[in-house]
Amino acid sequence: MKLTETSVSRTIPAAAEKVFDTWIDPKSPGGPWFGAERAILNPVVDGLFYLAVKHEGRTWPHYGRFLQIDRPRVVAHTWMSEATKGAESVVTVTMEARGDETEVTLRHSGVPDDEMGRQHKDGWAWILSALADSLAARRSASTAD
Fold it and tell me: What is the mean pLDDT of the chain?
């Protein structure tokens, strides 16, 4: 099976610490775990996660373990699902402060080079957009007070 890597980046209108905290909190709107049918995670090195995502009328289970937690710069974890054909791929999210914003880059390596594998790029881009939108809304709500 041929494997590939996908990468997406987005500037998020929030400090790196806020982006990091939202990313690892399953109760934070905009984070990758938020809104899942079920999310169980222990965000520490070697901590495990289970994520059940409802998509196209069915539930897609995802599993993994955290490899690196370095607040507010890096979250890395493995990622296994039907779309990776059960292979352990690796997701690395880096957060680099840019003034009062954060450049978030997500690299997903070890993904099968097929249609389902390539769909990860669209999924991760959607998640980064949701994160940006959620943190932008929180930012404007707090400045409106």
Answer: 94
